[in-house]
Amino acid sequence: MLDPRLLRSQTDRVAERLARRGPVFDRARFEGLEARRKALQTETEALQAQRNAGSRRIGQTKAKGEDASPILADMDRIKRQLADNEQALAALQTEFEDFAFGLPNLPADDVPDGEDEGDNVELRRWGTPRPAEGARDHVELGEALGQMDFAAAARLTGARFVVLRGGLARLQRALTQFMLDLHTQEHGYQELYVPYIVNADSLRGTGQLPKFGEDLFALDPANTGGADWRLIPTAEVPVTNLLRDEILEAETLPKKWVAHTPCFRAEAGAAGKDTRGMIRQHQFEKVELVQVTRPEDSACALEELTAHAEAVLRKLELPYRVVALCAGDLGFAAAKTYDLEVWLPSQNRYREISSCSSFGDFQARRLLARYRHPQTKKPELLHTLNGSGLAVGRTLVAILENHQNPDGSIAVPAALQGYLGGRSCIGR
RNA sequence: GGAGAGGUGGCAGAGCGGUCGAAUGCGGCGGUCUUGAAAACCGCUGAGUCCUUGCGGCUCCGUGGGUUCGAAUCCCACCCUCUCCGCCA
Hints:
Layout: H1 4-9, H2 11-19, H3 27-63, H4 69-101, E1 121-126, H5 138-145, E2 148-149, H6 150-156, E3 163-164, H7 166-186, E4 190-192, E5 197-199, H8 200-206, E6 229-231, H9 236-240, E7 247-249, E8 255-264, E9 283-293, H10 298-315, E10 320-324, E11 336-344, E12 349-358, H11 362-367, E13 370-372, E14 379-381, E15 383-391, H12 392-402, E16 410-411, H13 414-417, E17 425-426
Parallel strand pairs: 4-8, 7-13
Antiparallel strand pairs: 1-10, 2-3, 5-6, 8-9, 9-15, 10-11, 11-12, 12-15, 13-14, 16-17
Helix pairs in contact: 3-4, 7-12
This protein binds one RNA strand of 89 nucleotides through helix 3 and helix 4.
């Protein structure tokens, strides 16, 4: 969430920066809420101070063996008024929090202007895109190999799932191992294993709740003791929430974590989009990079993290481009985002395969994720970043489409062959 | 799933319903001493938040309710941890 103090003290500036995303900030509503909160909170805290002072006096009076009943009579009035005030304040605070939690992050100053996807700015390209002519798509290739089966998955579960067999199942595993090894051995990340089911507090911490609950699969409360547990939509949730309510020592920073998890997305509102193939599934594998830095280091860390994700594409010999998202296309919690888009010849265009974002202190504030400043010794909010490194399912799609041979077999990039028992080709 | 014990500051660990945000120890920071370090001694040392920024106020002792003028302390429910038993990949 945004800094409430900044919101109050520099409302103009905040409104201006939020306006770059579009009409997301109802300023009149904010100012109304804020005026009521201020009055009510000040009054309530004053009453609490009276109550505390009165109670103390009663204790002292009784200790001296004197009669405390005059004070007690006065306390009755304070008590009743306080009960009313506290109730009203709690309601108002809930309303205020709902409002504040609904506000997206401020775009970083160097984020390009723009309303939507069309205004994103391409920064660089790598590799030579394979022409669309003669290129079969991954569904055709996978099914012809007899190793990618959507019909079977539909029978097991429903739409937007897949069964992989033999070489392609192994290819997915190989891709995962390759990515983990690259990030841990060459890029300095620590590998984590984390729960795939998280509670509502964790989802609030990273910003999936309260706004985006419909995109998450929820467990039956009958099986959770009534708790609100969801399947993770990304490893970002359990990994970043490791910081919740923590105060880290400065010398332990930056934290660089990598985790491979399945990701579960209800994809509410995506009906009709990418219904063919493995591009948009309810369940997919992802290797996620997370960094936690001091505030002054987060800008560099984003460049570094993006380069780490790019390294995967290069080693897999997959043509891609890097795009800076414009203000209007930024995700809710992001201050700045680079998307990596891999070339898909069957679609004759680049498709997102990784999204690398800096969140500034937006997530850290919700999480109360802090570090102790070496000079002031005071806790200060950390900066969080993450990016896919990469989405494994989409990487598999890209491998198939970019490295297909005329006979329908798939050439295995050199970097991956060691993970496939030395094989250089996946065929029937 | 059953039985028992327990959740208090960075850690360990006290805490008769009444100046308790909380003894004490360790750790950390600063100082004295020292050529330097250690030891010893002295002092400081939780977090969040509000406003009229004051040597201010409020909130926080697993979570949520309740009793009370007043709750870390009493009552209820839940969560978690540990030990033992059962079950299980």
